[in-house]
Amino acid sequence: MFVADIPGARADGIDVTFDDGVLSVVAAVPARELPGRAVRQEYGIGNYRRSFRLGDGFDGSAISADYRRGMLTIRVPRLAAVWPRKVEVRAG
Amino acid sequence: MSLIPFRTKRSSGMEPGSLATLADFRNEMNRLFEGFFSRPLAAAPWFETIEPGQWLPAVDMAENDTRIHVRAELPGIDPKDVDVSVSEDRLVISGEKRSEKESSGEGWSHRESHCGSFSRAIPLPEPVDPARVTARYDKGVLTVELTKSPASASRKVPVQTKA
Question: Which of B13, B74, B95, B97 is deepest in the core (most CB within 10 A)?
Answer without folding.
Answer: B74
